[in-house]
Write a structure and sequence with these properties.
Largest sheet: none
Shape: globular
Structural class: mainly alpha
Number of strands: 0
Radius of gyration: 23 Å
């Protein structure tokens, strides 16, 4: 289990409100976001100390383990809070006060627009190449057409920011297109890392959690009680 090997699971759960807020407002891939979050932490935070001698246990996580735990905690958190007024207010506050920051000369909207401007021609190139190589022909069965269209759909579908590099078709594009996407992602990564290190945001997330608890408590007390009339 992840929590026995190191502190990753505990840290994801502890920071799920912050990570959910960033994910929902930026559109960054969950896999990429949790990776940036963990890389931003110190070894003292993540690793477990040995009990008998100095140093840390050398336990590496299996591939995508942190991503799976983050996806699970993200789903739980959003199911509970996505419709809450406090979370929606915090989202608007975050967009107005953090995504407008210009850490290195550009705000987040500018960086994300640049990313999509690089992603679109790459996807179009691969899509057109796929259609040219695998056209629908009269002799194809319905099953063959369905499989072909399913593969085409994976190219056409909208991804979270950064997810495109995990698809096989990404490497079918010209080198300069792949490089442009990677460079755009590096700028987004740097922006997200700056947000993760915002101390003021941590204080505001604590207030958000308090408001959510009060909101849930208020809703519970406001629930009408059904009176049972004895005959």
């Amino acid at each position: 289990m992840i929590k026995k090997k190191n502190n990753t699971y505990r840290l994801i759960k502890k920071n799920i409100a912050k990570l959910s807020l960033i994910h929902q407002t930026t559109g960054v891939s969950p896999n990429r976001l949790v990776s940036l979050f963990l890389k931003n932490l110190s070894l003292d935070d993540v690793a477990l100390h040995k009990k008998t001698k100095d140093g840390y246990w050398n336990w590496a996580l299996a591939d995508k383990t942190a991503y799976k735990y983050f996806k699970r905690e993200l789903a739980i958190y959003l199911k509970k809070n996505i419709a809450s007024s406090s979370f929606n207010t915090m989202q608007e506050h975050f967009k107005a006060n953090y995504l407008t920051k210009e850490y290195f000369g550009e705000n987040y909207a500018s960086l994300s627009n640049n990313y999509f401007a690089q992603e679109e021609p790459l996807k179009n190139f691969v899509r057109e190449g796929f259609i040219a190589i695998y056209p629908i022909t009269p002799e194809m069965s319905q099953k063959e057409i369905a499989i072909r269209n399913q593969k085409l759909g994976k190219i056409s579908v909208k991804h979270w920011i950064g997810d495109i590099i995990n698809y096989d078709y990404f490497n079918q594009a010209p080198g300069f297109m792949m490089k442009n996407v990677q460079q755009a992602l590096q700028c987004i990564d740097l922006y997200i890392l700056n947000i993760l290190n915002e101390k003021q945001l941590d204080h505001e997330i604590m207030k958000l959690s308090t408001n959510q608890k009060l909101e849930a408590k208020f809703d519970a007390t406001e629930a009408p009680k059904i009176k049972i009339h004895k005959i």
